[in-house]
Amino acid sequence: MDVTITPSRVAGRARAPPSKSYTHRAILAAGYASETTVRDALWSADTEATAHAVSLFGGSVDRDEDTLEITGFDGQPGVPADVIDCENSGTTMRLVTAAAALADGTTVLTGDESLRSRPQGPLLEAIADLGGEAESTRGNGQAPLVVTGPISGDEVSIPGDVSSQYITALLMAGAVTEDGLEIELETELKSAPYVDITLEVLDDFGVAAEQTERGFAVAGGQRYEPAGGEYRVPGDFSSISYLLAAGAIAGDDGVRIEGARPSAQGDTAIVEIVSAMGADVDWDREAGTIDVAAGDLEGIEVSVEDTPDLLPTIATLGAVADGDTRIVDAEHVRYKETDRVSAMAEELGTLGVETTEEQASLTVHGGESTLEGAAVDGRGDHRIVMALALAGLVADGETTIAGAEHVDVSFPTFFDVLEELGVALERDD
């Protein structure tokens, strides 16, 4: 699907979608449990892939709008009768690979072309170190993967600078092993707030895990049992970033964002980033609302070491801001659904924006650029699509984004919400 954005101002109210990161973890945690109701869940292409995996392991997921009734496999995943297709979801593949290592038999996992290019090697090595068998069919550390269990709990070491999802996957699986798991980090942990999310979800499901001097640890023999058999998913700050940025660059009369209650999400940093760049921002944490209005934006330096999903949003803000916006500590952002550093540099370049790309940074020269509408490519990446749509709000002329349907991964109603805020757009299926 192509979406064409006509320059527009935004105003009104918008509600944040539920968190994708929390929903993934909640669905799998409910899979490890017996019976769980997950409320306010995000039902998207990615989270549906995780739900499908739970079903293949022997559970079931019944959906009624944003409520999921999940019958789990009670800590013991069965051997799937079919290949687990993780579609485009890296979170699904990492979390489910560790779950597969608990099954007494062989599981095969694959995904789409993009997912089959993403690194899984460190997690495969960890599973092998724990007594399982795990290999890439192409011998390159990438899917398709073949995993044979069961593993037993013990000690394992793993790099922390490739993906925090490896640690999340091992912690969730380690809780139901007999001996538990101690994880030693070989390198500094990147995207640490995502592990904080995991620890928060585990605690809500009655599972004790902790950070240690060397890494993380989780005791074995635990049961996943949320209080009252229910879990409620918070709003998603990765998605909120696009609404905040829309208000910051085109919200003359202000935008109110609802569903923005505090949580362990590192992407809450976007509130401070937008404010530091010069937008008028007021976050009422108790009410869970953020009011944002456009201001004269100035470029700043931002580290995305712990917030990789924010890079596309910050890059677009930088294209509108005066001066340079330098995004640093960004090398790991190259290993997402696409190389988001190069993708944003190239697509913003198509829109007339000057950038300087280095291996671990992206500098957007907003003061030297004039945004001009053009045809751009969303690169099959939901975050690239949404960031380019923001640029279209203030570009000179129409901006047409190819592959816009990929917003279904995390924010299926994104373009509907933009229209409700006053954005003029056309969809071409």
TrEMBL record:
Pfam annotation, one family: EPSP_synthase
Summarize where 3-phosphoshikimate binds, as residue positions: 20-21, 25, 163-165, 191, 309, 336
- Cite the EC number: 2.5.1.19
> What are the record keywords, sorted?
Amino-acid biosynthesis, Aromatic amino acid biosynthesis, Cytoplasm, Transferase
Positions contributing to phosphoenolpyruvate binding: 20, 90, 118, 165, 340, 383
BP-aspect Gene Ontology terms: amino acid biosynthetic process; aromatic amino acid family biosynthetic process; chorismate biosynthetic process
Q: Does the keyword GTP-binding apply?
A: no
Pathway where it operates: Metabolic intermediate biosynthesis; chorismate biosynthesis; chorismate from D-erythrose 4-phosphate and phosphoenolpyruvate: step 6/7
Where it mainly occurs, coarsely classed, is cytoplasm
Instruction: Enumerate the GO terms in the molecular function aspect.
Output: 3-phosphoshikimate 1-carboxyvinyltransferase activity
Assigned GO CC terms: cytoplasm
Q: Where is the active site?
A: 309 (proton acceptor)
Q: Where in the cell is it found?
A: Cytoplasm
Q: Which residues form the Enolpyruvate transferase domain?
A: 7-418
Q: Which CDD domains match?
A: EPSP_synthase
Family designation: Belongs to the EPSP synthase family.
Q: How does it assemble?
A: Monomer.
- Role this protein plays: Catalyzes the transfer of the enolpyruvyl moiety of phosphoenolpyruvate (PEP) to the 5-hydroxyl of shikimate-3-phosphate (S3P) to produce enolpyruvyl shikimate-3-phosphate and inorganic phosphate.
The protein, known as: 3-phosphoshikimate 1-carboxyvinyltransferase
Q: Which organism is it from?
A: Natronococcus occultus SP4
* Encoding gene, per UniProt annotation: aroA
